[in-house]
Amino acid sequence: MVKVYALAVAEKGSPVKILASEQDLASFSFFQRGSITEFINFFTKTVVERTPNGQRSKIEQDNFLGHIYVRGDGLAGILVADNTYPTRTAFSLLNRLVDEFSAKFPDRDKWATMNPTTTAAKYPELRQHLVKAQDPESADPFMKVQKELDETKIVLHKTMESLLARGEKLDDLVTQSDALSSASKAFYKTAKKTNSCCGY
Known about the structure:
alpha+beta, 54% helix, elongated, lipoprotein, prenylation
C-alpha cells in the first residue's frame, strides 16, 4: 500500500518559506518523528530552492520519493511519499494544491507572516488532501477510470476464455453458424490467415 508522509506549500525566495504543511508520520516510532519532520522540512526547502520556476521535479532518496511543483510565480507544492506513489497522481494533486492555496490566500504580502502552525487552522483542506492522497484512486479520477478499464479488460478476456473453454474453438463456431453468410465466413478465414502471417 502506498503511503504519503507529507504535503506542503512553500514560497520560493531567499530563503524558501514553508507556508503550510501537514504530515502523517504514524507509521514511524514516536522517537523518530522529530528527526523525520526536520528532514522533510530540510528536503522541502532545498528542492524548492533548486527547482526552476514553472518546473516539476521528482527526487528519490532511499525509500522516499519527493514530488515538487514550482509554479511560475514561485509558489510550490511538495508531496513526500514512499517510492511507489504514482507520479501522475502526485503532480495532479500538487497542481490543484497550489491553485487552491493561492485562491484562498490571494494577498502575497500576508504570506510573510504565515507558518505551518498558524496556517493549519486557516487551511484545513491541506489535511483533507493528505488523507485523500493516501488512496491515489480517490485523489486522481483518471487513475480510477484507468483501473476500471483494466478490470473490464481482464473480465472480458476471462469471459471469452470461459465461453470457449468447453472444448469449442472459434473456428468451429464460425463454420457451424447459420447466422453468418458465406461471405462473412470467407472474410473471417482470410483475416485469420492474414493475421497469422503477421505474427512474430
